[in-house]
Amino acid sequence: MIHMLINRAHQHLLPVILVAVLLITGGVALVLSHTNANQTVAGPGSLDVLAGQWQYLPGSAAGDQESLRIQPDNFSIVHQDGSGGQPNPPVNLFGTHLETSGSWHVFATLSDVQDSAALQLYGQVPLIADEFRVERKSIRLSFAGSTLTASRWNGTSQTPFTMSLPFSPAPDHTINLAIAKAGKTLSITINGRLAGIMPEDGSLSTGTVWLGADAIKTAWTLSSLQASADAGGHVGLVDASAMHVNGPDAQGLQTLASRKRPGFMVGAAMALAPAVSDSQYAGVAFGGNFGSLTTENALKWQFVHPTPDTYDFHEADALVALAQRHNMTVHGHTLVFGEANPAWVQALPTATASDKQHVQDVMTDHIKTVAGHYKGKMSSWDVVNEPLADSETFDPAAGQTFRNHIWYRAMGEGYIATAFTAARQTDPQAQLFMNEYGLEFDGERWDAFFALVSKLKAQGVPIDGVGFQSHVYEAGDKIDPAVLRAHIQKLARIGLKSRISEMDVYNDDGQAVQTQQFPAIFQACLAEPTCVSWTTWGVSDRYDFWQDDDGSIQQGADLLWDKRMRPTPAVDAIRQLLQ
Length: 579
Ligand code: XIL
Hints:
disordered N terminus, Jelly Rolls, binds (3S,4R)-3-hydroxy-2-oxopiperidin-4-yl beta-D-xylopyranoside, 579 residues, TIM Barrel, alpha/beta
């Protein structure tokens, strides 16, 4: 089983190095070779980093002559109830980063800095979820007025070590910054003067330096970015957007499924950070196991529509590009949801009729803009995600059937029909789904959901199908495939398709439950002609993070590939049923 990671020839840069990496995955040798390092310099001489690929950096736009205009797009992550607001500064993931060893320098010119500007250098890319960002190894240099705040994350604590370094701003609003890494120290020079020296603590010693830039209050311009190696050191530019995994693997889950039932899609929710920064992950995710990619978080409101007047498609565009390059379809998650909405959405008033109309306009504009941006590129959408009240509050007898979020408060259950209608008008080719959890069981929740979709169908609302999330988070969530099949058949009789949309299985009781549940639900879907896709919520436990009630960040073990990127026994069990 041999995969080659081959990059597209980059227009401005010369492909120079060929690196072959031998990975042993679950006893199977996987050769990944990549020609990503487009240019290298050892010793004196510097690389023009901005001449690389920057087109997918969130919050930025190309300026004149290889400069980047950095916009204050207010990227932040809110808690599910809308509170908080952890900053989420953009990283150039699907683009250029550095490969380094030994001692090196980075030089940056920040122009038109009216009040504030920030650059961040990452030894490891951050991992992003809806409610939190896991900062791994990085250095952040944030300029405000005449103070540079330098923060360092060393990969073990979420609380950075921070230093405040005063400097004299230049009258022309330009900051010339030099960062020198020598051994375990970083020297920071501003406008020709040494501003400070910071212990590096391993944060930029991983051999890889990813780059990010953001504006805090007003836009500024990154007008130059150079890197050079000192004697004995090395710096190279790597274009992660050139990544391509050759395939498909003959034993890949999608490869096998396509043989067994042509058109059936095996999918996974994916995020950009692991896809571009981890070649083992990329080999599994893009090498024939999955024919469909669900945008895990990149299209949730707070990421794609951070302020009322800004949409940022950079990251989701990158995922779509990766999927297309690997002949995968894309399932868009999600247009309307009660969670992961930015503070500005959560704060919209719903008191008066005109407030309500405004909320409806905000929702339909969002659907038209986002589904319009991806018109022809999405094979399907979760138009409405989780319309039902959470299981703790769900109580139809007490009138608590629907989730009481901003959309429901403004429009009642009519928001659902409005959302589907807007989505169909915008992208008539895309299949439109309503996605929910807990539908795999008999009972009031399923009854209420079935009544809802029956009503929508009877009213002629353009809904094509239902997503069964199929999260198995604890013993009580275990799914009976016979009940699931009965529900899929019931939906088929009213003209609705089904998909298993977000399956993952806890392993607190050991792997046996996973080894039983994953293939059993896969098989149930495969056997029903109207069940069009089996999709899992993530690829590998290596990137399976969640936040406990006390706020601590935990790593799960719920997915098909484990932390070491070895296939779990459930993968073999699915392969067997596909033979
Ligand atoms: C999850 C994301 O994957 C996490 O990164 C985030 O921390 C929480 O939300 N049902 C859904 C998905 O429809 O949007 C959720 O995604 C998982 C549950």
